[in-house]
Amino acid sequence: MKTSMTEWFKGGTPWIWLSAGAVSISLIMVIGLLLLIAARGLEQFWPSEVVTFEYGLTVEEKVLLLGEIVDQEKVSAKRVREQGIEVPAEMLHVERFLLKQGNRDLTGLDFQWVVATSMGEQTQPKNIVVVEREEWGDFYGYLDGVKESGQVVEEEQWASVQEKIKRKQDISEKIKHIEKNLIGKVNFKVEKLRLRERRLQLDNIITKAPYETLVKERAVLDQEYAKFQEQLIELYKQINRDSITLSTGAGQKLELPLSKVRRIYQPNGMNLWQKIQFYFAKISEFIFDDPREANTEGGIFPAIFGTVLMVLLMSILVTPFGVVAAVYLHEYAHKGPLTRMIRIAVNNLAGVPSVVYGVFGLGFFVYFLGGNIDVLFFPEALPAPTFGTPGLLWSSLTLAILTVPVVIVATEEGLSRIPRSIREGSLALGATKAETLWRTVLPMASPAMMTGLILAVARAAGEVAPLMMVGVVKLAPSLAVDANYPFLHLDRKFMHLGFHIYDVGFQSPNVEAARPLVFATALTLVILIIALNFAAIKIRNHLREKYISAAQ
User: Sign (positive/negative) of CA torsion 97, 103, 108, 110?
Assistant: First the structure.
């Protein structure tokens, strides 16, 4: 028996099972974490039931509360008694619920903890409405009436208010198009004219002709701007025509212009199909809309767009640097002290904290390189910086430097796996070393390059610390890509999913409201990284199959 156990250990079977167990536990933990993030992030989009009940801090003092129960926990009864809430003496622990009551503009708080022992019977009236507002969060209460130009609408209220909200949304889209696209384009051209005029002044041009041309162009733009302003004034009159009157569970009255309402619905009166439609509509808004209310509500499209664009630019920048360095080290550099120092430096770069790269990017790229670019090429914009301020280009370059060691190591591994006989055969057929490298070696090493790029993308997409110094912001007013020449604006600041998670989770003035958004944004970032990696993996596998079949 002892001999068989010794042979079993020597054969390595226990270590195989141990490794398999460790991998299985790791997979279970990763899958469990993703499921937790998905459950906590996606549940916020489901239209929860709204309850109303009497709540008494004491036997004599009772109030009527209304809202969604979003969380529950058990706490010490002593802690509850210290807050002035009556609890039976024999109880050691009390269950309490977190009630999302909304109406922040009226009560000052979106959320309130309520103790189970002080709660009366819960009811779920079907006529309770939830109003999603442009500001001040959600409103919970009852719909009392609909007004049009100050006059009460006598038609059926619910159908009337839904029709007017649809009309308001159509007008809002027109206003957004005029403000962001049409007027935005005019403002962009006006700013270009200002910079052209400033350039003429710096060049000491005193002839009248260039200035008169600018004046004529500015006059045309002013006319366009005035026309768009007239359209906006008319649209704002239309959108401010309607309003609704509401009341809270406690009887407080509120008149709300429909221009400040995004959606109104009755969650207790919705059937399953209506809830599913609502759920996917909310997810769509979360992905494709802009954020609002200090990033605690609305969507995350600018952050998704900024993350993807930055990763793509980083990939374009890091691949040539990493491949050229790897080719030099493996194909051209002689073994010696200098080559060993370079390899040591590359390995050490992989272990440098990312925030150090951010400091380097801020000092070298932004202040030194960007500042000199402004002096040489954009003097008319000074003292306002163009490239001498954090932006998309410098963020991409900083992350390219951060991830270039990964690409170098992976590419070198790929080059070392190519048989020497292939190089010698190419040279024997009359190809030069450069032709051999370009037409034979590098194509066969391309799967390894893609492996390095996959690892680089996985790391860069989740980095936050360096980006906080070189371009990422809480809210970017404009995307880095638009219809204005040169279409891709590398000098602009941008939003990033990683920083968005940090900002909403730790800098939000309304922590409870922001918590589900943190999980939803984190899930989006994970899905985005997986999608980018899968795309790169598919390209790598295609290249691998192509050159394996060619070699055969």
Answer: positive
Q: What is the pTM of this model?
A: 0.89
The predicted-structure confidence for 210-261, as pLDDT tens digits, reads as follows: 888 999 999 999 999 999 999 999 999 998 888 899 998 888 888 899 889 9
Which two three-digit tokens encode residue 417? 């796996």
CATH (one of 1.10.10.10, 3.30.1390.10, 1.10.3720.10, 1.10.287.110) for 301-551: 1.10.3720.10
CB 120 within 8 A of CB 53: yes
For the stretch 508-515, contacts whose Cβ atoms lie closer than 8 Å and that sit 24 or more positions apart, written own/partner, are 508/294, 508/295, 508/296, 509/294, 509/296, 510/110, 510/137, 510/294, 510/296, 512/70, 512/98, 512/100, 512/110, 512/111, 513/110, 513/111, 513/137, 513/296, 513/297, 514/295, 514/296
Low-confidence winner among 59-73, 372-386, 485-499 (lowest mean pLDDT) = 59-73
- Spatial separation of the C-alpha atoms in residues 124 and 251, rounded to whole Å: 17
Enumerate the β-bridge partners of residue 115.
Answer: 96
CB 367 within 8 A of CB 376: no
Neighbours of 95 (CB within 10 A): 13
Q: Distance between CA atoms of 113 and 490, rounded to whole angstroms?
A: 47
Q: Per the structure block, which two tokens stand in for 20?
A: 């398999």
Cβ 30 vs Cβ 120: under 8 Å: no
- Paired with 94 in beta bridges are 75
Any residues with CB less than 8 A from the CB of 70 and at least 6 apart, and which? Answer: 48, 98, 99, 100, 111, 512
SS3 assignment, position 500: helix
The pLDDT > 70 percentage for the chain reads: 96
For 325-354, the DSSP string reads HHHIIIIIPPSSHHHHHHHHHHHHHTTS-H
The residues, ordered by sequence, that sit 6+ positions from 49 with a Cβ below 8 Å of its Cβ are 68, 124, 267, 268
pLDDT digits (tens, 9 = 90+) for 125-180: 998 999 999 888 889 999 988 888 888 877 778 888 888 899 999 999 999 999 98
Q: Quick check: 54 pLDDT over 60?
A: yes
Query: Helix 497-506 crosses helix 511-551 at what angle (to 10 degrees)?
Result: 160
Q: Identity (one letter) of the amino acid at 456?
A: A
354 versus 7: which is more confidently predicted? 354
The mean pLDDT of the chain is: 86
- Residue 305 phi/psi, 5-degree rounding, is -60, -45
**Rounded CA separation 513/504 (Å):** 10
CA 406, distance to chain mean position in Å, is 25
Query: Which residue is listed with tokens 């384009």?
Result: 185
End-to-end Cα distance, the chain: 50
